[in-house]
Design brief:
Blueprint (H helix, E strand, L loop, with lengths): L1 E9 L3 H15 L4 E6 L6 H8 L4 E4 L5 H10 L4 E7 L3 E2 L5 H10 L3 E10 L14 E3 L5 E3 L2 E2 L2 E2 L10 E2 L7 E5 H6 L12 H11 L3 E12 L10 H18 L2 H24 L4 H17 L4 H9 L14 H7 L10
Parallel strand pairs: 1-2, 1-4, 2-3, 6-13
Antiparallel strand pairs: 4-12, 5-13, 6-12, 7-8, 9-10, 11-13
Helix pairs in contact: 1-2, 6-7, 7-8, 7-9, 8-9
Length: 339
């Protein structure tokens, strides 16, 4: 069995891999085996890998299974103590893996960890996808140390300390294989978006810790597969976030949170239409609400099993305030200003 397997899920990302794989190989090959799991790309990804990176192990899938199930199917073919889920648009740094490996080795109660994510475009700023570790508020809205909604902070070392978090970014997630499979892996039905938050929430319910270790830092391009303005991304984010809440919320909170989200989601849709003139995103929110209603009962058994696995009654990293209220009403737009 390998100690560490770095697995890059690829779909038509030949140019990204050609640009960013050299740093992964240069700074990781002594500590990990590097895999590329290809989601039935139609570009020259596989040919490019064979020609330029023959040392990378390839896992070839029969179709595009999306981010979530793509990883499930790829990781099922790898035997390793630790998996590293790594995006194809990541530039890593010298010894970036060492603090992550050493921390997991020394802390068996920790299921997963992430490095600090900075932006490739502006290396003094955090990157949107995970910044310095993720949290969620009472209503299920995710945010990070270094990023709240569209406000992304510059990195001045303000979060350069290890910190327990609610979720670690799927852009660069190191996780124990044992924890990954015991929690059920990523939910393949999500396809993409919110799947790592869902997995980490399930791990926290089971009493396992998630940690951000800024001693390790990497650079992320971000948005390489689906840009932020894409209505499909809006649809997946809203549908999957609601599904995650349905699966993971404690029974005593489920109804009230879902009622609030019904109101807030439709307010968000009309704000997209009236203020942003974005008809695509407006329709995407409505489609997401309908899709969630149609498939909600498919997750009844998941909810039962997740609630039965509950060891942590209260999860400190799931904050008890409303992020919308803090951000838009109180004007608290950076993590250090939150309650």
């Amino acid at each position: 069995m390998e100690k560490v397997a770095i697995v890059i899920l690829n779909w038509n990302g030949s140019s990204m891999m050609k640009q960013y794989l050299p740093s992964v190989l240069q700074y990781s090959r002594d500590e990990a085996t590097v895999y590329v799991a290809d989601n039935a790309s139609t570009d020259d990804s596989l040919e490019m890998l064979s020609e330029h990176f023959p040392e990378v192990k390839q896992i070839v899938m029969d179709r595009n299974w999306g981010f979530a199930d793509g990883y499930n199917k790829a990781l099922a073919q790898i035997e390793a103590e630790y998996f590293v889920l790594l995006n194809s648009d990541i530039e890593v740094t010298h010894h970036w893996l060492t603090p992550l490996i050493e921390y997991l080795d020394a802390h068996p109660e920790v299921a997963a960890c992430q490095p600090k994510l900075l932006s490739v475009v502006d290396k003094d700023s955090f990157e949107y996808a995970g910044a310095s570790g993720g949290f969620i508020d009472w209503l299920g809205y995710p945010f990070c140390r270094g990023r709240i909604f569209e406000t992304v902070e510059r990195d001045g070392g303000q979060y350069d300390y290890a910190c327990d978090v609610m979720w670690a970014t799927g852009a660069a997630l190191m996780i124990r294989a044992k924890d990954y499979w015991e929690a059920g892996g990523l939910d393949g039905r999500f396809f993409a978006h919110n799947e790592e938050i869902d997995l980490c929430w399930r791990l926290r319910i089971r009493g396992r810790r998630i940690v951000c270790l800024p001693e390790s830092y990497i650079y992320h391009f971000g948005g390489g597969t689906l840009p932020k303005s894409n209505s499909m991304k809006t649809f997946l984010n809203f549908r999957n976030n609601l599904t995650m809440l349905y699966k993971c919320l404690p029974e005593e909170e489920l109804k009230v949170v879902m009622r609030w989200r019904w109101v807030l989601d439709y307010l968000a849709a009309w704000e997209m239409l009236i203020l942003k003139r974005n008809v695509g995103d407006f329709k995407a929110v409505y489609r997401a609400r309908r899709a969630f209603k149609r498939w909600r009962r498919d997750f009844d058994e998941d909810r039962r099993l997740i609630q039965a696995s509950r060891k942590a009654e209260k999860i400190p990293e799931r904050k008890r305030f409303s992020l919308l209220w803090q951000y838009y009403v109180k004007g608290r737009k950076t993590f250090n200003l939150l309650p």
